[in-house]
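Section 4.2 – Deliverable D4.2 (structural model, holo form)

The reporting period included a commitment to supply a predicted holo structure for the target in complex with pyridoxal-5'-phosphate. Inputs used:
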Amino acid sequence: MFDVDAVRARFSAFEGDFAFFDAPGGTQVPDEVAAAVAWNYREASGNLGAPYDTSQRIESVVDEAREKSAVFLGASSEEITFGANMTSLNFTLSRTVGRTLSPKDEIVVTALDHDANVAPWLELARDKDLVVRQVGILDDTTLDYAELEGLLNSRTRVVAFPYASNALGTTVDAGRVCQLAHEAGALAWVDAVQYAPHLPIDVKAIDADVLLCSSYKFCGPHLGIAYGRREVIESWRPYKARPSGDRPVGHRFETGTLPYELLSALVATFDYLDAIGGVEQVVAWERTLGERFLAELPEDTRLYGSPSMEGRVPTFLLNYEGIPSAELSVALAKEGFGVWSGDNYYALALYDRLSWNDALRVGIAHYNTLEEVGRLNETLSALVRRARA
Ligand SMILES: Cc1ncc(COP(=O)(O)O)c(C=O)c1O
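Output (structure tokens):
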């Protein structure tokens, strides 16, 4: 059984009674990750390449961050690129692959995507006269794989899709999409930001060409991580300063000086995840929490996305007819619960398709407890009852 109390003891953030259900926006961070930032400033300051200890420590931090990121994703360390966040990395990498594309080449995106995996392609399409096509979803919010097959053709160069929706939690069969992309001769480009905190990733098993995630969604620093298949990214010409090194190959897409303090924090994040058994260990526990949450929701909850824990991560979008979600999230905050209210959650196509107007997003992370979930459901039910009275 997952020892959630032992996990929580590593976080100062959990010393009070406030219950954080805002993980899809960014998780809480264990103290050891915060301490690693301070360690870096105290003992590994300066820059890479100098012949003394503090500089050499930075070199070890960068190497270790690359190695541990590679293990986390099932990649090799040369295939890792760090960036400010997923969005920045995606603009960089999409512009880079754009150098290989020709007018009328096609990019496929999906209706499940966060705009960080759509806007870079739309902007590239403007600059390079490309065509961007969008695959829709079925009524159960799963990707329309048949439509995807129909859209693919000899001009398709990239299929960009999310591994899990940041709004609904709906997951995508990434292996299937990568295979379809490859059969059409296109690159498979995966946004794994919402998937990475909840389910293990193996880029080789799904056969991704590019996969991106953000460590602040899994108890780490605000930092983006990208995997790029070596044979693919080796063939790209990077936008880089000329003296900046060419090895490892993933480094060619990192511009300027990396945030070493955040890379120290990232190493500590992977050590934390290893210490609690890895993402593999959180799956069953998050499922138990998600099932409890779904089972005890107020009766007239409108839930968008899968009504069970099948085909989803524990990110839930819901609202109540006639009750503004913002009112509920403010009232929940006063009662000690961190739950977001918002409109499109950057999932613009989903927002158009499902028209939820405004909705609460409840995100469960491995550090949540059954007691917190029970308390949230009770409080939410009481608030909804009061609003209806
Ligand atoms: C699915 C998904 N993709 C991309 C992003 C953007 O990530 P970042 O904030 O690292 O740019 C987010 C952020 O919430 C997300 O949930």
